[in-house]
Specification:
Elements lengths: L1 H33 L3 E5 L6 E4 H28 L12 H34 L5 H4 L5 H18 L4
Antiparallel strand pairs: 1-2
């Protein structure tokens, strides 16, 4: 029963990871169409930081790809570790499966966080009057999800294993 629920959770996390890639790409394309030619990415009372629309698009895409490639290389390296039921540390099969699932979820959460940032920058640049009260709660969703996911990692690492 536990193996079946583990397999279901792994599929759900994998689906979330794939969905987060599509959400990011959709948000990036939407923001590119919505943004003015000069993009303000930092609002400051003394001076705003401004970049070109294309630079923002390709820079965001490059950052997204680099982070995802690094995470996927780490995931593939983790999967190559030989494990058994009696192994200790990463060589324990159950811990390795849990960590593999955690990394897949981490990739999805990072991508979701990047999606929120792109949408926030697009809204910040496109709105006639930028209203922080409307997006104020969304700013905290990404860091909150990351914090929850790291607490989940701590729980996985603290779990007793054979």
């Amino acid at each position: 029963m536990r193996a079946q629920s583990q397999k279901g959770m792994d599929k759900l996390v994998g689906f979330f990871k794939t969905l987060s890639w599509l959400l990011f790409l959709g948000a990036l394309l939407w923001s590119y169409a919505y943004l003015p030619t000069q993009v303000v990415y930092r609002m400051n009372s003394s001076a705003d930081a401004v970049i070109e629309k294309g630079t923002f698009f390709f820079g965001s895409l490059a950052f997204f790809l680099v982070i995802n490639i690094v995470c996927i290389i780490f995931l593939r390296t983790l999967k190559k570790v030989k494990s058994s039921e009696e192994g200790r540390g990463l060589q324990n099969k159950a811990l390795k499966k849990d960590l593999t699932m955690w990394v897949k979820g981490f990739i999805g959460i990072l991508n979701f966080f990047f999606t929120l940032i792109v949408v926030f920058v697009a809204y910040m640049n496109g709105a006639q009057e930028f209203q922080t009260s409307y997006l104020g709660g969304f700013v905290y969703i990404g860091p909150a999800l990351l914090l929850i996911w790291f607490f989940y990692l701590a729980g996985l690492l603290a779990k007793k294993r054979n």
